[in-house]
Specification:
There is one protein chain. By secondary structure, the protein is of the alpha/beta class. Helices cover 36% and strands 20% of the residues. The chain is globular. The relative contact order is 0.16.
């Protein structure tokens, strides 16, 4: 069965506590923290996500899945390590070279979190292959990062399948996480291609009963 990481990007102001408790009750597997700096992507959610994740840590023991869409990865790792996330994912495209990628991997592991590397839709999946033995999760973006509620780019299904095939052929244990446009219409294709952690925000938070949507995403 797949795991669900619920993006809290579109949580309504003033309804944070109520929403976080409802998501925990609905058995989301992770809170997905979309950290944006206004540079790597246009939107800036940095401070808001710092506040949300600090609050979640005080009220919940559920794992936090921190997705750094930032230029200064080192600072992002340091800032968000204070909320003891289960996973910290950074973007391959934000790194200048292989050495920087390996430094970030090492730093996240030293913080006690699992390591994820994310790739944008235009980045060939082969660029992440050399790092797979050192990380826990590869996050495939199925939309351009930076906005919620986008439509899944269908070409990315083949990208997920290619990654899954490589992982199996090389006896790796890397999880495949997929983020962007995940809903009840797209979930089956993404799962069939090999994804086992699904990030969903709008599809879950737009519903009145989060548990129904989460269960359907897990079991469809």
């Amino acid at each position: 069965m797949v795991e669900i990481s619920t993006s809290i990007l579109t949580v309504k102001e003033g309804e944070e506590a109520e929403t976080f408790f409802a998501l925990e009750k609905a058995r989301t597997d992770y809170f997905h923290i979309d950290v944006m700096d206004g540079k790597f992507v246009e939107k800036d959610t940095y401070q808001k996500m710092m506040e949300y994740s600090s609050y979640i840590r005080r009220i919940s023991n559920l794992p936090m899945d921190v997705h750094l869409m930032v230029e200064d990865i080192k600072k992002g790792i340091e800032d968000f390590s204070s909320v003891e996330p289960n996973v910290i994912t950074f973007h391959l495209e934000a790194c200048k070279n292989e050495e920087e990628v390996m430094e970030n991997i090492k730093k996240i592991k030293e913080m006690g979190a699992k390591v994820g590397i994310s790739v944008k839709p235009n980045t060939p999946i082969e660029e992440v292959y050399q790092y797979l033995p050192y990380i826990h999760i590869c996050l495939v973006m199925t939309v351009e990062p930076g906005k919620g509620g986008q439509t899944l780019i269908t070409d990315m299904i083949d990208k997920i399948a290619t990654l899954k095939k490589y992982i199996e052929q090389n006896n790796l244990e890397t999880d495949i996480e997929v983020d962007g446009g995940i809903n009840l219409k797209t979930v089956q294709r993404v799962k069939s291609a090999g994804a086992n952690i699904l990030v969903a925000g709008t599809a879950i938070l737009a519903g009145t009963d989060y548990s129904i949507i989460i269960n359907e995403l897990k079991n469809s």
